[in-house]
Amino acid sequence: MTDTAPQLRGLAGRSPLPRLEFQMLWQKVLGVPRVWLLAHDTDPLSPDQVARFHELEARRLAGEPMAYILGEREFFGRMFRVSPAVLIPRPETELLVEIALQLLAPGRAAKVLDLGTGSGAIAVSIALERPDARVYATDLSDEALALARSNAQSLGARVEFLRGNWYDALPDHEDFDVIVSNPPYIAVSDQHLARGDVRFEPAGALTDGGDGLAALTDIVRGAGARLGAGGALFMEHGWDQAAAVRGLLASAGFSRIASHRDLAGIERVTGGFYN
Ligand SMILES: C[S@@+](CC[C@H](N)C(=O)[O-])C[C@H]1O[C@@H](n2cnc3c(N)ncnc32)[C@H](O)[C@@H]1O
Question: What does the sequence similarity comment in the record state about its family (predicted)?
């Protein structure tokens, strides 16, 4: 290696990427923590390393989400593997996990169901925070379930994964204390589906193919048959859907219906209790 070999310091000045993304891609290429990059920004880089970086940089410049390029995203304090087969877990979904945990009294072996688990972020987080709970998770997508299983295994969570259309995935007569879901709730006509990171995520994870309330409606209507006495159902939904979801829950016989706001002050999670 000669003195003229490329160095991080020189490349940083020429990359159009924001500094943080530049550093995250280099962390992936070199397999080092961020602090290492800062201390080694004049070390010589090999042509292979530079070529690998330019490959990742080109993907990012084409709009691909950082989480898919890096293959992981943090959720509830843990790293989850992600791929284009699953929705990238969102920070606002942590609210749903917090609500579920509040409903699960410590020391009581409750049964929890996560419908539409994707990467497994919700189910795995609940299972790790409450190892005494029996956690089930379903999805329609085999690829999503494979990734969710691998996340559960590598993070050491016990979750029963099942494939199928919402409650159809479950054995007959299986009921739960808490059901949670972050279903597809974007209307198929919503222009946001064609913009930004969302373009790269699976359509079946984002939209119900209708007005955005179809999956939420199916989940509410099926919940009564799957909740034990006093059981709770809480769902994430879009910024303008809280009143509609409260209406669905009321029509299905739920009581103590409430909507919870995310950190941006938006009503993001709505649920209630049955029986
Ligand atoms: C918005 S994503 C949520 C993923 C994950 N729970 C999260 O919060 O990051 C919705 C998930 O529901 C799944 N899904 C869509 N329709 C379904 C159905 N009819 N039955 C079961 N799962 C479904 C999708 O495959 C997707 O993984």
Answer: Belongs to the protein N5-glutamine methyltransferase family. PrmC subfamily.
Ligand 1 contact via 141 beta carbon (within 6 Å): yes
Cβ–ligand 1 contact at 121 (below 6 Å): yes
- pLDDT tier for residue 1 given thresholds of 50, 70 and 90: very low
Quick one: 22 and 126 in the same domain?
Answer: no
Ligand 1: centre distance to CA 137 (Å): 10
| Cα dihedral across residues 112, 117, 121, 122: positive or negative | negative
Question: 144 CB under 6 A from ligand 1?
Answer: yes
Statement to judge: residues 58 and 101 lie in one domain: no
User: Based on the structure, what is the number of domains in the chain?
Assistant: 2
Q: Same structural domain for residues 190 and 57?
A: no
**Are 176 and 113 in contact, with CB atoms under 8 Å apart?**
yes
> Is 57 part of any domain?
yes
Summarised one tens digit per residue, pLDDT across range 88-146 is: 999 999 999 999 999 997 777 899 999 999 999 999 999 999 999 999 999 999 999 99
Instruction: Using alpha carbons, select from 247, 199, 254 the residue that is nearest to residue 223.
Output: 254
**Closest residue to atom 9 of ligand 1, CA basis:** 89
What is the domain range of residue 128?
Answer: 90-273
How many angstroms is it from 122 CA to the middle of ligand 1?
11
Residues 119 and 196 in one domain: yes
- Helices 121-129 and 142-155 sit at what angle, rounded to 10 degrees? 30
